[in-house]
Amino acid sequence: MKHIGTYFFLFLLLFVTSCGANEETEEKPGKGSSVTDNQILIEQADFTSSTMERVKQFQATTHPTNSSRNGIYVYSKTIDKYLDAPEKLAARIILSGFSEVYLSTPKSTLCTIQSANFQWMRTFISFLHTYNIQVFALLLSNPRLYTNQDLLFEDLGNLELYNQTVHNSEKLDGVMADLEPHTLKSENEQALEGLDIYWDSNNHYGIGKENDQLLKRTLNILQRASFELSPLKLKESVSFLYQPKYDEGRLSYGSTTQFLQQCESVHVMAYYNRAEVIWNRSLPLLEDANKLYKNAVSVCVKVSVNTYGDEGNENTSLQPKGWKYLIETLSDIYARGNQHPSFRGMDFFEYDGLEIMLENTLDTF
Fold this sequence. Notes:
Elements: H1 9-13, H2 16-19, H3 35-45, H4 49-61, E1 71-74, H5 76-81, H6 86-95, E2 100-104, H7 107-110, H8 116-130, E3 134-138, H9 152-165, E4 174-177, H10 210-229, E5 233-239, H11 242-247, H12 256-260, E6 265-269, H13 275-290, E7 297-302, H14 323-337, E8 343-349, H15 351-359
Parallel strand pairs: 1-2, 1-8, 2-3, 3-4, 4-5, 5-6, 6-7, 7-8
């Protein structure tokens, strides 16, 4: 990364002995799993036989073609559950067919080498890399970036500190950003101090108006982050709100193509409990990206309930609809998505909720 690492040098000296990094003798990640590897994974994952049948069904449904790339969010609740068994969680993710993991990486984990979470992350990432699964840090979500863009150096600096401390096989592959300008509303109880403009879905659309300006700032933050992060990859979670307004001529910033100029891929938060709504929210982004990009837009669905930000609204999640409806929905989205060159695959928010659905084999509706 550019311009970030120098001031970490002395701090890194304290880490060398613990990590024992030896780049010359380190093995490279594997190139896939053999039949024997697969059996070992099944043993490590320790699924029940009935759950394993659902895992196979999920994996088959989410891989109608070899080009699908699917991601799973992993947050602290899951990390705490598997704190003594990172390989078990990794094996479960691999068997489920995911190619990317979006991992909660607070500063306390990235910068505290003696912490259990730091050591857990090293093992978890290394195991996933053996099976060519990439791991992205969940960073760049702080609303204060809209008032002080220099704060991105804190997030990216913490990531660089971690990556400079560990073996190549244990390094993070990039960042999944989550900048959400549509949440910056003046009526929020915790309105962002120092912000001079706010999002208003009723009054602030229009070329050059406040919503447009906030999206311009979002793209500027991502441009700067992409430059500083290089050669690591940058992804962005985007709302389904922007592209339709851009298409209507009510925004000059916020198109999917503009986001993809700064990011490797965009991941549309199409959270809802009906397949048709999920698809309709995703389609405008796919159509815009089709012009210039292949395998660039992922459709993200929620399979958890009572997670941060949903305020108990179960309408945003597929979990209450049950396993059968989940599989039917995924089959429908993949069938439609594969008609679009820009379709990349699907993401799932988040692992804990998916595991509940996998293990609840009494649910047959």
